[in-house]
Amino acid sequence: MEMSTVFHVVTIFIAIILLSSDPLDVANANSEGDALYAFRRAVKDPNNILQSWDPTLVDPCTWFHVTCDHDNRVTRLDLGHAKLSGHLVPQLGSLHRLQFLELYKNELVGPIPKELGNLKNLISLGLYHNNLTASIPPTLSNLSNIKLLRLNNNKLTGRIPRELTKLK
């Protein structure tokens, strides 16, 4: 085959791949990967549990401890008892299809980001047995699908927000 023919075949192949990909799926995967990687940068990981979290990979669904749905959207983050230390990041609130956020029994510090109240599909929020401080953000009352909210054994201060009483 001539060099120009090979070039045209490769160009057509790349064009087909690009046209068959849904740009919205790629954009969602990138934004979700960015949110997860922001968390990765905010924590220390002495056991290298997060070593597969490579920001150069477009799809965070290939990362360990991350589960995705059929649309390749993040639905579950399982990092309980992982010996992570550091703090939660507001970007986690952009994982709109997240159903399970399990970060219990780590050494996380600082406040619970109010942005976690954006996770309308969240069923379970496990932040217990950490060293989280400050008050519980009232925005957690926006978690309309929550079934299990565990914040015990932290260093949270203040009263439980009255808004949380509207959760079913």
Characterization of the model:
- The protein is α/β, with parallel strands linked by helices.
- It has two helices and ten strands, in the order H-H-E-E-E-E-E-E-E-E-E-E.
- About 11% of the residues have low confidence.
- This is Somatic embryogenesis receptor kinase 1-like protein.
- Pfam families: LRR_1 (PF00560), LRRNT_2 (PF08263).
- One of its GO terms (molecular function) is kinase activity.
- InterPro entries: Leu-rich_rpt (IPR001611), LRR_dom_sf (IPR032675), LRR_N_plant-typ (IPR013210).
Entry keywords:
168 residues, alpha/beta, Leucine-rich repeat, LRR (right-handed beta-alpha superhelix), 5-stranded mixed sheet, 10 strands, 23% helix
Summarize the structure.
This protein is α/β, with parallel strands linked by helices. It has helices spanning 3-20, 23-42, and strands at 43-44, 66-68, 74-78, 85-87, 100-102, 107-110, 124-126, 131-134, 148-150, 155-156. Helix content is 23%, strand content 19%.
Number of extended strands:
10
Helix fraction bin: 10-25%
What is the CATH topology? Leucine-rich repeat, LRR (right-handed beta-alpha superhelix)
- Number of helical regions: 2
Quaternary structure of the protein: single chain
InterPro entries: Leu-rich_rpt, LRR_dom_sf, LRR_N_plant-typ
Pfam families: LRR_1 (PF00560), LRRNT_2 (PF08263)
Protein name: Somatic embryogenesis receptor kinase 1-like protein
GO molecular function: kinase activity
